[in-house]
Amino acid sequence: MQADRPKQYLELAGKTVIEHTLLRLLQADVFTAVAVAVSEEDPYWPDLAISQHKNIITAPGGKERADSVLSGLKTISGQAVDDDWVLVHDAARPCITATDIHHLIDSLVNDDVGGILALASPDTLKQVQGNSITGTLDRSHIWRALTPQMFRYGMLKTALEQSLGNPAITDDASALELQGLQPKIVEGRPDNIKITRPEDLALAQFYMEQQ
């Protein structure tokens, strides 16, 4: 991002990105607790009023995403049992809607494994080596993973513990996949974008104004 602070603390419509994200999770009114994984050296999080919210728990951040998610799961271990559902969401996705959260939960609540919000790919996808195309992927089988991702507490915790350090674990579903499980796909909204580039802030503000 070439910014002076992590992307989740950049300003968006009068608040930081993470404040928008957390407020939307809390306003969905389905969570008994929200764990936020934060680096112990993070100077920004303690200054946000939302960090003191009664339903928000701060967990130590990890080196990789999987480490942070596992830390969050361990932090709520006193409040969760193995069969409880947990949803994992990116702090840098501030446009998540309560509608999508409820759609995910309603679609998966009776599933044995769980699943993720995702979008079918509208683009032609190329497989490359260096800067040369080696093939074209069948996009009818390609979906773009979003968050939240929803799994049973015990199942996700075990999958992450057994796959720590594996570079193939780029989201929570991939840890379950390595266990031989097949998470479900639930179609999400295209405005559930992740802030990764400076121009994404303006796009996120536009989407939020339209929602």
Relevant terms:
29% helix, Spore Coat Polysaccharide Biosynthesis Protein SpsA, Chain A, 211 residues, single chain, alpha/beta
Q: Could you characterize the architecture of this molecule?
A:
- The mean pLDDT is 96.
- The chain has one domain: Spore Coat Polysaccharide Biosynthesis Protein SpsA, Chain A.
- It is built from 6 helices and 10 strands.
- The longest helix is centred in the C-terminal third of the chain and has 13 residues, at 198-210.
- It has 211 residues and is an alpha/beta fold.
- The strands form 4 sheets. Strands 5-9-6-10 form a 4-stranded mixed sheet. A two-stranded antiparallel ribbon has the order 1-2.
- Helix content is 29%, strand content 24%.
Short description:
With about 210 residues, the protein is an alpha/beta fold.
Spatial strand arrangement across the major sheet: 5-9-6-10
Secondary structure: number of strands: 10
The computed structural class is: alpha/beta
| SSE string | EEHEEHEHEEEEHHEH
Global shape: globular
What portion of residues belong to β-strands? 15-25%
Helix content: 25-40%
The name of the CATH superfamily reads Spore Coat Polysaccharide Biosynthesis Protein SpsA, Chain A
The rounded distance between the terminal residues' Cα atoms is 25 Å
Q: How many separate domains make up the residues?
A: 1
Instruction: Tell me the name of the CATH class.
Output: Alpha Beta
The pLDDT mean sits at 96
Low-confidence stretches: none
